[in-house]
Amino acid sequence: MRPAGPVRDLVGILPETVAGALAYFLLPTIAFLFLEPYKRNRFVRFHAFQCLGVAVAVFIAGAALRVFAFVVFFIPVLGQLLVWLLTMLVSLALFVVWVVLVVKAMQGEMFKLPLIGKFAGQQAEKVQGV
């Protein structure tokens, strides 16, 4: 990780840190991966790919929760309560991770999540068209 610092560059019309933070909202992520000059900026690409990795992790967590819900739903009262409680805990944890990622991007840091961050870092290094 590099230390937080002032805005280094403008990327298109946005400061680099703002573009990195916006990359954690899904629609700008897709746009940043295809539009010039965002697709050439390593910082923005890293955060865009990390957002896509988090989105895949959320999809997998949702699928696992549905399977768990199907299995324990038939337990009277307790099963439904367990499903509700686990869903709320996972949702809260994912929201906190998302907020931390947005804040770290605004601070100019390339904060890497354990598995997803390594993939995002590798993809960010592959700048297209250079």
Provide structural commentary.
By secondary structure, the protein is mainly α. It has one domain. It is built from five helices and two strands. It has helices spanning 16-22, 26-34, 42-72, 78-106, 116-125; strands at 10-11, 14-15. Helix 1 (16-22) runs antiparallel to helix 4 (78-106), helix 2 packs across helix 3 and helix 3 runs antiparallel to helix 4. The protein starts with 9 loop residues before the first strand and ends in a 5-residue tail after the last helix. The model is unreliable at 3-7 (pLDDT under 50).
Q: What share of residues is helical?
A: 55-70%
Strand content range: under 5%
Physical arrangement of strands within the biggest beta sheet:
1-2
What about the largest sheet?
Answer: 2 strands, antiparallel
Determine the number of helices (DSSP H or I, runs of at least 4 residues). 5
Order of helices and strands: EEHHHHH
Q: How many individual domains?
A: 1
**How far apart are the termini?**
24 Å
Mean pLDDT: 86
Shape annotation: elongated
Radius of gyration: 18 Å
Low-confidence stretches: 3-7
Give the class from helix and strand content and strand pairing: mainly alpha
List how many beta strands DSSP finds: 2
Give structural attributes.
130 residues; mainly alpha; disordered N terminus
